Known about the structure:
single chain, elongated
Amino acid sequence: xxxxxxxxxxxxxxxxxxxxFLLLNVIPGDPVLEMVGERADxxxxxxxxxxxxxxxxxxxxxxxxxxxxxxxxxxxxxxxRRPIARDLAERxxxxxxxxxxxxxxAALSGITLGVVAAARPGGVVDRFAMLLSYLGVSFPVxxxxxxxxxxxxxxxxxxPASGSGGLAYLILPALTLGMRSVAFxxxxxxxxxxxxxxxxxxxxxxxKGLSELAVVGRHAFRNALIPVxxxxxxxxxxxxxxSLLTETIFAWxxxxxxxxxxxxxxxxxxxxxxxxxxxxxFVLVNLLTDLLYAKADPRIAYH
Length: 303
């Protein structure tokens, strides 16, 4: 089954490549004008269009681009003339660093809140967790980011408002990116734990005289992990591929900000290469999540 999943990624990524290529080539605007400006003479514009193969029919352009992708060449940026693969290799570690920090924050906070809330349903922690869940789902990412900047950077002056550097620069964007996941994970963990805690084997464990900590931590928690892993796996993919707003708000030099700059300048190869790269990352994260299913639940196996 795992081999079949790997094989299915090929047509999936090919579909992403085709759709992205067609959409970017039918939208209005001329990337050459973005490169040279509107005051450039017609001879210069014509020469650049010929060099970039923009005068070729779309099937020819796509075939040329596809052959480059097969060879591992994502092309060169229209604006900077740098290889796109090199740009992504330089920026992805920053995105991965931000995603890892957001994941750790979300997992520790959300799962802990959910477990404690399920252990004492209707208590203070349970009500706080549910309130936090509703707030986290309701507030948009950019609003949370701006609020954190106003509080911790402008008012209290504890943390820098933007840029990258040491740990201090990572805290606010990681909190912003992970806050929504805290809400989802808390609700998912609480629901899964409540279902498991009402099971027969939990009542048997309690009847044997096991402590509540052992019942909740050793028996209930592992059996409640499957839906939690699902949410966490999808969130990690979103951290790595959907952090555009967070990186923009905090001027974080990652892939998301690179994509936004490429869109603003209609840098078609950079947009296409970035989308394909992020699609590959998302597919690989989903495959890893499936493998974690089998690790958490021995009843699930991939052959």
